[in-house]
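Entry 12.
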Amino acid sequence: MSDTSSISSGVAARYATALFDLAKEANKLSTIETDLDSLDVALTNNESLRDLFKSPVYSRSDVVGAINALSNKMKLSSMVANTLGLMAQKRRLQVVPMLIDAVRTKISEEKGEVTAEVTTAQKLSVEQIKELSKTLKASVGKDVNIKAIIDESLIGGLIVKVGSKMIDSSIKSKLSNLQNVMKEVG
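Predicted 3D structure (tokens):
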């Protein structure tokens, strides 16, 4: 049996590659990057929009109409609007968050940048993000974009993921390690 998440990521990757290639050919990478950032914010902040993208309850024509209205309201470029429209017709909107991540990754690679996913217990200040970016750039050798995620269960510290590397200096992780050591002793 196939893993549905790998199927979804494969679908998202194909749409992302097509969108990226079209935008690169038309010299519109910055335009689609801005559009996808706006769409990501909208999806993050609007539960009804997330429901529309994920729910099979809505009819195909209702979803296509809503996506066209959304694209017009958000003033999305024709490339992003057409991609979303096609995905709505094919009932593939649930993979849009993966598409956004995949296109961002491709754009970063094109610019010679790398994205670091940084998970912290509290929101980082602009100064902390700049300092972390500078430190990571010295380590990685490329410009680093920070994707900040807040997870209050970490208590403190941070988890940094850059590509396949991960550094976990969270207090939650340290407490878990300490707990394991104490179990071995007793």
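Annotation: Strands lie at 113-120, 143-150, 158-162, 165-168. Residues 113-185 form one domain.
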